[in-house]
Specification:
This protein is mainly α. It has 20 helices and no strands.
Length: about 400
Amino acid sequence: AAAAAGGDRSEEEELEAELQRTQWATCIWELATLMLVQRPLVAGECLLPWWHRHLCDPMAEEAAHGLVAAAAPEAQGAYWPTLAGLVAQGKTRLAGDLLRAHSALRAGGGDGGGGLLASRSTALLLRLDTLLDTLPRLTEPEIFDTHDEAAAPSLGAQEAMSCFRLRWRVWSEDVASLVADLEAAPAGDAEATAMCRVARVLASADGALGEASGGSWHGELVGRLLLEQPVRLRWQLSGVFSPPPGPDAFEACLVALLRDDPYAAMAAIRQAFGDGWLIAHLWDLLCRARAVRSDPLEGSPLSLRQYFLLQYAKALGGVPPLWQLAAAYGGDLLSEPGAAAEARAWLGDLLLSAAQHDSAAPAGSTLHAHKVRKLLGVCEKLGLTAAADAVLR
């Protein structure tokens, strides 16, 4: 029983590890298509939804939903840290909902009978609410168009960025004014101190954003692009973030992509995933999008793209039930100069092996005859006459 339980745990751990690899692969693929295929002029607004889908810690959002429903959420210790965390994550709409759940604002903004101090506190809350609600966002369509860094931005993009900078300057001055007023609050005003931490995150003041991001380098990057450098160009992100020394294999892929370096990304992806489906399909996509060169490998007629696709086909061919899928990948290379000869030779070996090694369909059986017909059909489709002769022997 103990051995069976150990086996179950091992299988569960293996499934969990594979699920994590698949989630990371999806995350990396989306970032690669964003940075290297879509190639927007400004990356911040494009990175935000990607980061929310794959890397954002959901704890602040989950806590916020509970706090909004509470009678006096500001009395709970998690209220202000949760609010600061939502701001750092770019979830300003939910942050505004949480702020307006504060008793002073829920009551309609009156002083609640607390006198001058309460009125002052409510006024500060209202100013913070306004700033959350009016955070300028660079969402004009021209910003999301594909842009080559060697070319000047389009006139539409230049106009959109110019108008945005004006709105941003006014908003930033209002944030700085609120921070100054909160820092000047009387000593011992705990709420003003807590509110100031949130305002400092909006202002991206020293250390405030990193603290609210929980030490996440990619979270701090997204926060800085939204709250500090919203017009930072896509190919200039290297100066905005500092990944930890020696990031793990998956994060190393993100770092290379954020640095707009497809070849470093290729090396990192191979280190993390091997020469499997991710690098094969991604490099194929990047070549077709002309985001990378299609140079031949040193000492080989194959290009990198062809090499990755053939390696993946061979990996599929190593699993007998997947021989037809493997043959489809290999067959796609038969029409490509440089890859045709090696692909043809490997396909012949694959089809002959598939005909000879199948314990579920012994020679002479109906199932074996059906499989041979399938093999011959593939040979005919791909023009593999020699392979068809070998299968029939």
